[in-house]
Amino acid sequence: MRTASRTKTKLALLAGDMSLFVLALATGTYLRLGDLDTLLHRYNTAAILCLLIYPLCLYLSQAYEVQPEASSAENLRRPLPGLLVAVSVSSFFFYIVPEISFGRGIFAIANGIYVILLPLWRIWIFARLRRVSLTILLMGNAPAVQTAQKLIREFSPGSQVRVWQPEADVTTPGERFVTHATPAATHDLLVLAGPALEPCMLRKAAELRLQGVSVWNLARLYSEFAERLPAPYLDELWVATADGFRSFHETSSQVIKRLMDISLAFIGLLCFSPLVAVAAIFIKLQDGGSVFYSQDRVGTAGKPFRIHKLRTMVAGAEHLTGPVWASRSDPRVTRVGRLLRRLRIDEIPQMWNVLKGEMSFVGPRPERPVFVEVLQRKYAMYSLRHLVRPGITGWAQVRCPYAACEEDNMRKLEYDLYYVQNASLLFDLRIILHTIGIVSSARGGW
User: Fold this and answer.
1) Same domain, 218 and 120
2) Are 403 and 344 part of one and the same domain?
């Protein structure tokens, strides 16, 4: 990113941060007092003081260091120390000069709102930056480089992309780590695409890294731009060196997640039982067949279990075809079943699987054993899905529709692997909110 562009971005960040703080103050005042006159007349001095303290503290904590090529987590963490200091300094001033202070309730509510709005604003602005302003250098073997180019065109169409050519950048054995035909100042990001890079590529990558250029591998590019992982390019080395994979080893997170699953499943079964009863009547009226449908699926650690759903296909749908993936206009789906799928009502009985501990509310969708065998032979890291409980909904479910073929399953696997690497309670909450939005608008079902 050029210097002028970075300056404009810093000013945009500052303006956005302060606008959000004013919005948080106004919201806190209105919620506490029911009007805004008090903020404009009684608390105006305190507001001006905060508008000086907050940007200064954020600036000193390097919250305005513009690095769109940094990870999302890093860009979110950067303003938090400054925000904590700003709250502390403001509170100190209000303590020693109480005449100009906010009411404690207003200040607490405003900061609570600001802590929520600030990360959301940062996520949005840095996503925008990635779309318009990165200069990216690609280095690696041809198939992986082409994959990276395709991804960048899709998610960051405004970026300038160059592919490094070894013949244009020859170094003799005695001149390691010196600048040649690819000056670091012209690039924001270097992406190493593909395994087994040539020594000349690694030497150039090391040179650029020492000059301050951020270096990502293909998995990091996918993770940051598309929030999925390139399944065909993952191997044991990636598993051994990649960040993440922590939450399912943290006992406290697992206990909280399990308690949430039990609570939500119990409440869900109670609330939606009348809806299931109505659906059962329509299924019976449709063709007189069974209401429920059970099927073997692969769960945690590869253990099989029986999943329960409302039947949405004709009875004996696979007697002639054998196991096949569902398709968008699958003729086996009944009229009632199509509506149940669109509204996700057919998934409600799986809450019983959640209560039994076989599933979670959020996780990779459990797949059938016959398909698992096929996909595990094709993708070395497919079994990573089985490190966590399968879910009623998941990251793959909210990002892409039902899988109708192996290619669709690969895309869903890429989202599932991203979830397994980055699983957390906050990520689960994000997926649940996405799911609510999809179900309420009747999108995504076949």
Assistant:
1) no
2) yes
Expressed as residue numbers, the domain containing 327 is 248-440
Instruction: Judge if 258 and 369 occupy the same domain.
Output: yes
Same domain for 344 and 361, yes or no, is: yes
Is residue 357 predicted with pLDDT exceeding 90? yes
Say which amino acid occupies 404: A
Q: Which residues contact 399 (CB under 8 A, 6 or more apart)?
A: 227, 228, 415
Phi-psi region of 101 (alpha: psi -120 to 50; beta: other; left: phi over 0): beta
Total domains, the chain: 3
**pLDDT 10s digits, 81-110:** 888 888 888 888 888 887 777 777 888 888
Say if 323 falls within a structural domain.
yes
Q: What is the DSSP string of 248-305?
A: GG-HHHHHHHHHHHHHHHHHHHHHHHHHHHHHHHHHHHHHS--SEEEEEEE-GGG-EE
Same domain? For 112 and 162 the reply is no
N- to C-terminal Cα separation, the chain: 43
Is 233 part of a structural domain of the chain?
no
Beta pairing, strands 135-140 & 391-393? unpaired
Same domain for 215 and 284, yes or no, is no
The three-state secondary structure class of 370 is helix
> Mean per-residue pLDDT for 45-67?
81
- In whole angstroms, how far apart are CA 212 and each of 156, 209, 225, 259, 316? 22, 5, 21, 45, 62
For 136-156, how does the pLDDT look when each residue is reduced to its tens digit (9 = 90+)? 999 988 889 999 999 988 887
What average pLDDT is seen over the chain?
83
- Let me know: does 164 contact 138? Beta carbons within 8 Å: yes
